[in-house]
Each structure stands twice: as structure tokens, then as C-alpha cells.
Amino acid sequence: MAVDEHSERECRERARKKMSRVLIAWELGSGWGHIVPALPLVERLRSRGHQVVFAMHDISRAALGEAAGAECIKCPSLGGPLANQFPFTADYSQVLFNVGFGDAEVLRGVEGWSKLLEERRPDFVLCDHSPTALLALRATGIKRALIGIGFCCPPPSAFESPLLEDQPVAWDLRRDEAVILANANWVLKVLGCAPLARMVELFTEVDEIFLTTFAELDHFPRRGTPRYYGALTSRLGAPVEWPDVPFPKVFVYTRDFPALEGLLHYISRSQLSAIVYSEEPRPTVRQATVGEIRFPDRAFDLAHVASTCDLAITNGNHGTTSAILLAGKPVLVIPTVTEQYMLGQRVEALGGGGLARPDDLDAVIGGLLGVLRDGTFSAAARRFQMRYAHINSDDTAPRIVDRIEQLVGC
After folding, report:
1. Percent of the chain with pLDDT over 70
2. pLDDT, tens digit, 9 for 90 and up, residues 174-222
3. Torsion sign over Cα 95, 147, 63, 256
4. Band of the pLDDT at 248, cuts 50, 70, 90?
5. How far is CA 200 from CA 124, 204, 354, 398, in A?
6. Distance CA 308, CA 328 (A)
7. CA 63: distance to chain centroid?
8. What is the 3-state secondary structure (H, E, C) of the chain?
9. Which region among 58-67, 219-228, 280-289, 347-356 has the lowest average model confidence (pLDDT)?
């Protein structure tokens, strides 16, 4: 039997059984922030009899997706090396420029998504930070949705103003958008699709937008009146034991940054205890003289750490930062990229923590002590916790799956 004939027969069989094939597309980003939120969705979809294919940016995470019941494959790559022209992106057009939209020939690699969609024939596609998958989907009749935190679901304002609220406009935003729009429309012409009038249409002309965040932590606070589903979480690992010393507990979840080693040396000499987790090589720390630091080397229960720490230090990654605030604990954000700085600004506006530059050790230590000693930060974090105490993260995945089933007619 020919491949196309087999696929058509399989599609008819799924329709007869009211089953659907859902493709989850994840093509940008790293770490746990995209795989962990997908796991409860995979589990819920599978429990209702749907097939799930997870096209992953980082296939090394496949074991987690497979354990939840998904078929995990590597997502398609673009047609050449990405031009990282903007190390610190000032607007969303520059974000897209860096990930392939700045070069039409590179962007033509989107045909890899077209081939995957033709082979897999999904009934529905969930796009988590997957702009080139969205581009390919415009040439199909497949229902699609955005899912993710605010940064991954840009509204019109993302293309109309700087990403950072305190940054003056010193360049032509329309010129930035014109470059990537022309490249995207050239690819759409190759695919036989109508052109985009504005780049934001790629993200708004979808069947649904699942914003898995909270209004206060939306990277784009001037979004309008969207529906927020709350954070998707999945428990991995076991509880960790804090050092057995009577000192405040500091949870540090971070990638390397210039002031990190100095920060850890300060903690080791102070009346503080810390759990430090990083997927990068362990930072060097002199032998502790007062405080104590532990470095877990395996997955741990984030909810347990959040509930037992006194404060956390993060780079501004949404999953960990929101988990800490939902536990009623304050956060010091030390961002290393624009997206993280944006979330740090939201944490500051919320009052639930501080923000410090990654290359300024004095500011980092000052921020740590300020968040630890000033009770207003903890009070704001507790208010955030109480505001969302009624939201059970275990209910978020079923609500999203309910909506997917409505859209595909199950």
C-alpha cells in the first residue's frame, strides 16, 4: 500500500473512533521550560485516546515525553546557520531575525515542517515558540494554536514598541519588521500562500491562543483582555534536603553569569544556606566558612524547594520564577537575555522581588540582601500566592485539552 493511501486510511480510522492526532511543535528555547509544561498535556491527551507526536527542539529530552505517552521526534531545522545579528534584541522583529527570518534562503528550510506535516497528518498542532512551524501551517488547513508564556505568544504591541519598557526608541521598528516580513512572504509565495500584511498575523491568525501564565507575569502587559490559563507544571524528581544550619534558605536556579562565582562565595561566608542548581558545569566555590551550599545533581521537586526556601534567585525563566511566587516567596531576577529582563520588570512591578545586572556583583549582593530583609517583597509574593490559590495546576491541562477537542470536533 502506498504511503499516502495508508495515511488516508489511518486518518479515516481516527475520525471513526473520534480520536485525533495532536502534534506539539517546540523549536526555540532550551532547558526545562518547554518540555515540563508539555508533559501534563501529553498525559491528558493520551488518557482520552488521542495520539501525540512531540516534535522537539532538544531531542535529548525525549525520554520524558515518551514516558508521558508521546512519540518524540526531532523538529525540522532551517536551511543554514542562523545570523545572530542582534545579541541583545530590542524588538520582536529582531528576535525573529536572529532565529531565521533574517535570511530568506535559511528560512526556506521551513519546507522541512511542510514535509513533516504532510507525513504525520495531524488534526491539530500546538505551537510552543515555533514561528517557522506557524509559517508552514499557513499552507495547510490544519487547525493550530499558540501555547506558552507571554513571550512566545506576541501580540501587536510586540512589533510596535521596544521589548523593554524603559528603553527609548532609537531605531526604526518598521524597518526591522519590513526585512523579516519580506523574507516570510517570499517563503509563503514558494509555499503557494497569500502574503502577510503584518508580521503579527503569523501569531494572531490561529484557532486559539493558550497563554500559560498570569496577567502579572505576561511579558507583554498591554495585551488587551486575553484569557490566562495559569502555569502548566509537572512534578519531577524528589524533595531535596536543605543544609542543616539555622540560616535563611536561598534557592539559586541559574545559568552561569559573570557575578555568579562572587555571589556563591558571598553566600558561603555569610549566615545563609543555599541549594544551587544549574545544568551547566558546577561553579567553583571556596570551602564554606559560615554558610553551607548544596548542589543537587539530579532532577528535584521544584514545588518542595519553592515551599521551603525563604527566597530564590533565578535568571528570569518563567517556570521557576512563577513557581516561587505561587509559593508566596520573593525572587531576585538576574537576567542574561532580553526575555528574562522583561520578566524581571514584571516581577519588580508586582513587588514580589528585585532585578540586578548579571555583571554587577555589588548590585547582585545588594539585591539579595534587600529582598531578604525587606518584608514588602515577601508580602507582595504572598498576595500573589493568595490571588491564585484557587487555580489548581492539575486542572489547567484538562481545560486546554477540552478546548482542543472542541476545535477538532471530538
Report:
1. 91
2. 888 999 999 999 999 999 999 999 999 999 999 999 999 999 999 999 8
3. positive
4. very high
5. 21, 6, 31, 28
6. 10
7. 19
8. CCHHHHHHHHHHHHHHCCCCEEEEEECCCCCCCCHHHHHHHHHHHHHCCCEEEEEECCHHHHHHHHHHCCEEEECCCCCCCCCCCCCCCCCHHHHHHHHHHCCHHHHHHHHHHHHHHHHHCCCEEEEECCHHHHHHHCCCCCEEEEEECHHHCCCHHHHCCCCCCCCCCCCCHHHHHHHHHHHHHHHHHHCCCCCCCCCCHHHHCCCEEEECCCHHHCCCCCCCCCCECCCCCCCCCECCCCCCCCCCEEEEECCCCCCHHHHHHHHHCCCCEEEEECCCCCCCCCCCCCCEEECCCCCECHHHHHHHCCEEEECCCHHHHHHHHHCCCCEEECCCCHHHHHHHHHHHHHCCEEECCCCCHHHHHHHHHHHHHCHHHHHHHHHHHHHCCCCCHHHHHHHHHHHHHHHHCC
9. 280-289
Strands of the sheet containing 71-74, edge to edge, are 71-74, 51-56, 21-26, 124-128, 143-148, 208-211
Closest C-alpha to 132, from 168, 108, 162, 165: 108
- Look at residue 88 in the predicted model and tell me its pLDDT: 80
**φ and ψ of 187, to 5 deg:** -65, -40
Q: Are the beta carbons of 342 and 151 closer than 8 angstroms?
A: yes
> Which pLDDT tens digit goes with each residue over 328-339?
999 999 999 999
Cell output for 232? 502548566
Is 17's pLDDT higher than 80?
no
Rounded CA-CA distance 371/378 in Å is 8
- Separation CA 78–CA 82 (nearest Å): 8
- pLDDT value at residue 35: 86
What pTM, to 2 d.p., does this model score? Answer: 0.90
- Phi, psi values for residue 358, rounded to 5°: -70, -15
Strands ordered across the beta sheet of 292-294: 292-294, 273-277, 249-253, 311-314, 331-333, 353-355
Q: How far is CA 25 from CA 34, 73, 149, 266, in A?
A: 10, 10, 15, 42
